[in-house]
Specification:
Layout (H helix, E strand, L loop, with lengths): L2 E6 L8 E3 L1 E5 L2 E2 L5 E4 L17 E5 L4 E5 L5 E3 L2 E10 L2 E7 L2 H11 L4 E4 L27 E5 H13 L14 E3 L10 E6 L2 E10 L19 H7 L11 E8 L3 E4 L4 E6 L12
Parallel strand pairs: 12-13
Antiparallel strand pairs: 1-2, 1-13, 3-4, 3-17, 5-11, 6-7, 7-8, 9-10, 12-16, 14-15, 14-18, 15-16
Helix pairs in contact: 2-3
Length: 283
């Protein structure tokens, strides 16, 4: 089994960047979810409530981020440590670096609502959810854990179900993974406790329940096209109330540092006594 793709999402909920290689550390892939859009009170905003975020393209630079939307002139945003404010991401509060007022004004104009941009800089601190792991591990503005891992075999099974129903199929970008594995066995990841790649142990801590974001085109934010949720409901609905709903991919925690590359060999380090429980298939 090998790495089929690597992706980072420098600005949470904006477009991702596909890479051939990337440094991975205890907080995940370098540069992943290092910035977030918030409302004026510091509450994080995602495509769930603001689909237009999918239209933002982001390029990291040495000083900050270059942001574009719909062909507008590139906006350069840099963190200002003197303009810090508290950002709420789910249950966590992170003291983050702000940016120039002019950047916030431009983003507010593009997104047609008042917003602020925050950076997860060296002074910011956050740990991954302790509901699923026993030790403190660093994480940036990701939903809860450092990495999301998916497999090509599970996507193929999902798309086969969609096609059998006469529905449009979807690409892996709908699920916004960091690491895609070329495993052909659908849903095999439900039985793994972890993997090792490039000498880095990566624990699989919980499956990822999927929401309306998977129904959105990841270039336009439009809804109403291909929709993977009905197929996930038929194929892969959680049977454990701790993680309810349709599942795709696994949240994972790295325990080391090193360079990951597309094509790297991946080893399964352990298997669960029983795979994650699923509800009986319907339809």
């Amino acid at each position: 089994m090998k790495i089929a793709a690597l992706n980072i999402y420098p600005l949470k909920s904006a477009r991702g960047i596909a890479l051939s290689k990337r440094q991975c550390g205890f907080s995940g892939l370098q540069g992943d979810r290092i910035a977030v859009i918030t409302d004026p009170d510091g509450h994080f905003i995602t495509q769930r409530e603001l689909p237009a975020l999918a239209r933002l393209s982001v390029r990291p630079s040495d000083q900050g981020l270059e942001i574009e939307m719909d062909g507008a002139e590139t906006l350069f945003a840099a963190p200002h440590s003197t303009g810090r404010f508290d950002v709420t991401v789910w249950k966590d509060t992170v003291n983050a670096a702000g940016t120039a007022a002019s950047v916030n004004e431009t983003l507010s104009s593009w997104l047609e609502r008042p917003v602020r941009l925050a950076f997860f800089d060296r002074q910011a601190n956050r740990i991954a959810s302790r509901d699923w792991i026993e030790t403190d591990t660093p994480v940036s503005f990701a939903d809860g854990f450092q990495l999301l891992v998916t497999t090509t075999g599970s996507l193929a099974a999902l798309n086969a179900d969609l096609a059998a129903q006469g529905a449009a199929t979807v690409g892996m970008e709908r699920f916004r993974p960091n690491i895609v594995l070329d495993c052909e066995d659908p849903w095999a990841e439900d039985g793994w406790t972890g993997i090792t790649v490039a000498g880095i142990p990566i624990d699989f801590v919980k499956p990822c329940s999927r929401c309306i974001m998977t129904t959105q085109d990841q270039m336009t934010g439009a809804r109403g096209g291909a929709n993977p949720l009905p197929a996930l409901g038929r194929q892969h609905m959680s049977g454990d109330r701790r993680v309810p709903g349709p599942l795709f991919g696994w949240n994972a925690v790295p325990h080391g540092e090193g360079m990951l590359q597309v094509g790297d060999t991946v080893e399964i380090t352990g298997e669960r006594d029983e795979p994650w429980p699923l509800k009986k298939r319907r339809g």
